């Protein structure tokens, strides 16, 4: 029976197929048995009975082992057992209806895919079993003893996101899970660590509860803050800084400088008013010429690339001079600023509010409505201004400041350099980020205090808050920026826990989840 090494201790009498099942009849070898209580040998047979054991399948067919086992008298006088049933090594277990091989297969299936899916898979493999039996088998797995673990990793995971959280403990040397704790409180962590005095290093995130629990349960252990969390927190501070200086993201398009010391408008480069009048007359003539050809207003708008409202206004005017707002009678408060306004409009500035602010700096004391009444007709007649280039997004700029320069494209480098040139605050942020990255990559934790001082002195409010948080957890941060340990393996197991929870549709009790996490590696 080379296919069944666990049958080497019995004599196989018959092998036959009965329906869809392969039945193997056997009987135990030898004339003696060992008492499970006193370990004394017995030879007197009390009785015999049949045991039917389910075994692993052959070719998809279920296997049933039919064996006649014996009950012996225990001849040891001081033994409490009068009789006992013999157990065949590798084949039988007390009160079990499966062989150890079949039980091990169900256990492995249950650890891998849990209840319903495990039952379906086992039935396909030729072992008839229900989902409850699969779960009972998993829950009955004994906990293996935990050896000395000098380096631990601790992180939280969601049992019910936003409501209930647990803690996973990882052996950082073997990168295997050791235990799952039902919550993430400092008392639970401290109680667990008190029973393991060999712990020397504990890797954790920035959570204060874990810091307090480790400090209470293992005060001599070195706490190591995870570098990924440090960088993640820094990126968040940089993003807040970019949002604070969002106005600096826009590329300046205006070159005209207006200041309180300026008393005269800039010199004109040409007869602006004459150009506006000429353009208005030409457009008026073109519109009416197309209309006389039988074109519709929509056709005229498409051919001349003008706004439909502008075409309609030109069509209604019988004379082009009626459209020119400069032919006004009498004096106005805007007369001395009219050349400046026409030049700005011809240069592409069509915002009446902005023009009002500019001429106010030059001495204008009138209302914004007066400027608007002057500007709107000229704006409609003027050529459309070129579109303003789109500003980079906050996320894009955050990436410029936090990614390695070698990973930026040429376009990103150009945009980054232009942004840092016009924004001193973001330039300072970029220098601080670069220096922190050098400390983290080069494991120069001894320089972090100097960096914190610089960030609190020169950095934006978000960076100052980040630096203050580092100062509160300085020992763990320094260790994290100096030692080679990190919480990467712990995060990997947190993701695996998420997968196991989804696999069980989120209905796993904590004890079942713990068995699957600890024993299925």
TrEMBL record:
<feature type="compositionally biased region" description="Polar residues">
    <location>
        <begin position="253"/>
        <end position="262"/>
    </location>
</feature>
<dbReference type="InterPro" id="IPR047951">
    <property type="entry name" value="Transpos_ISL3"/>
</dbReference>
<feature type="domain" description="Transposase IS204/IS1001/IS1096/IS1165 DDE">
    <location>
        <begin position="152"/>
        <end position="255"/>
    </location>
</feature>
<protein>
    <submittedName>
        <fullName>ISL3 family transposase</fullName>
    </submittedName>
</protein>
<keyword id="KW-0614">Plasmid</keyword>
<dbReference type="Pfam" id="PF01610">
    <property type="entry name" value="DDE_Tnp_ISL3"/>
</dbReference>
<dbReference type="InterPro" id="IPR029261">
    <property type="entry name" value="Transposase_Znf"/>
</dbReference>
<feature type="region of interest" description="Disordered">
    <location>
        <begin position="253"/>
        <end position="272"/>
    </location>
</feature>
<dbReference type="Pfam" id="PF14690">
    <property type="entry name" value="Zn_ribbon_ISL3"/>
</dbReference>
<feature type="domain" description="Transposase IS204/IS1001/IS1096/IS1165 zinc-finger">
    <location>
        <begin position="32"/>
        <end position="76"/>
    </location>
</feature>
<dbReference type="InterPro" id="IPR002560">
    <property type="entry name" value="Transposase_DDE"/>
</dbReference>
<feature type="domain" description="Transposase IS204/IS1001/IS1096/IS1165 DDE">
    <location>
        <begin position="400"/>
        <end position="517"/>
    </location>
</feature>
């Amino acid at each position: 029976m080379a296919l069944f090494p666990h049958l080497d201790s019995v004599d196989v009498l018959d092998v036959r197929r009965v329906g869809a099942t392969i039945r193997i009849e056997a009987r135990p070898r030898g004339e003696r048995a060992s008492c499970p209580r006193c370990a004394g040998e017995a030879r007197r047979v009390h009785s015999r009975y049949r045991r039917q054991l389910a075994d692993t399948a052959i070719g998809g067919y279920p296997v049933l082992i039919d064996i006649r086992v014996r009950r012996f008298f225990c001849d040891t006088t001081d033994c409490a057992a009068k009789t006992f049933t013999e157990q065949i090594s590798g084949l039988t277990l007390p009160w079990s209806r499966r062989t150890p091989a079949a039980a091990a297969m169900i256990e492995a299936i249950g650890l891998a895919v849990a209840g319903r899916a495990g039952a379906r898979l086992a039935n396909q493999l030729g072992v008839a079993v229900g989902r409850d039996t699969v779960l009972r088998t998993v829950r009955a797995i004994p906990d293996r003893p935990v050896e000395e673990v000098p380096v631990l990793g601790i992180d939280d995971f969601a049992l019910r996101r936003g409501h209930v959280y647990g803690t996973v403990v990882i052996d950082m040397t073997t990168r295997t899970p050791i235990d799952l704790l039902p919550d993430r409180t400092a008392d639970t962590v401290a109680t667990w660590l008190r029973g393991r005095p060999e712990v020397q290093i504990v890797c954790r995130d920035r959570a204060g509860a874990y810091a307090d629990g480790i400090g209470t349960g293992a005060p001599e252990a070195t706490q190591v803050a995870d570098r990924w969390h440090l960088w993640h927190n820094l990126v968040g501070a940089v993003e807040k800084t970019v949002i604070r200086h969002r106005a600096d993201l826009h590329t300046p398009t205006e070159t005209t400088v207006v200041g309180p010391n300026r008393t005269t408008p800039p010199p004109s480069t040409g007869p602006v008013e004459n150009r506006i009048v000429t353009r208005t007359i030409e457009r008026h003539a073109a519109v009416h010429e197309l209309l006389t050809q039988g074109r519709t207003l929509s056709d005229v708008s498409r051919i001349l690339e003008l706004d439909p409202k502008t075409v309609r206004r030109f069509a209604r005017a019988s004379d082009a001079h009626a459209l020119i707002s400069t032919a006004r009678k009498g004096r106005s408060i805007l007369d001395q600023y009219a050349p400046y306004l026409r030049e700005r409009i011809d240069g592409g500035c069509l915002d009446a509010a902005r023009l009002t602010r500019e001429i106010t700096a030059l001495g204008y004391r009138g209302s914004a409505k007066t400027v608007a009444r002057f500007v709107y007709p000229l704006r409609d007649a003027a050529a459309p201004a070129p579109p303003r280039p789109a500003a980079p997004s906050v996320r894009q700029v955050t990436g410029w400041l936090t990614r390695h320069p070698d990973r930026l494209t040429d376009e990103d480098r150009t945009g980054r350099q232009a942004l840092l040139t016009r924004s001193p605050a973001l330039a300072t942020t970029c220098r601080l980020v670069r220096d922190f990255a050098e400390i983290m990559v080069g494991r120069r934790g001894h320089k972090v205090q100097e960096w914190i001082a610089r960030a609190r002195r020169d950095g934006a409010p978000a960076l100052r808050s980040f630096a203050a948080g580092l100062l509160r957890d300085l020992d763990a941060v320094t260790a994290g920026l100096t030692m080679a340990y990190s919480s990467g393996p712990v995060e990997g197991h947190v993701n695996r826990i998420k997968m196991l929870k989804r696999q069980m549709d989120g209905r796993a009790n904590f004890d079942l989840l713990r068995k699957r996490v600890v024993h299925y590696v």
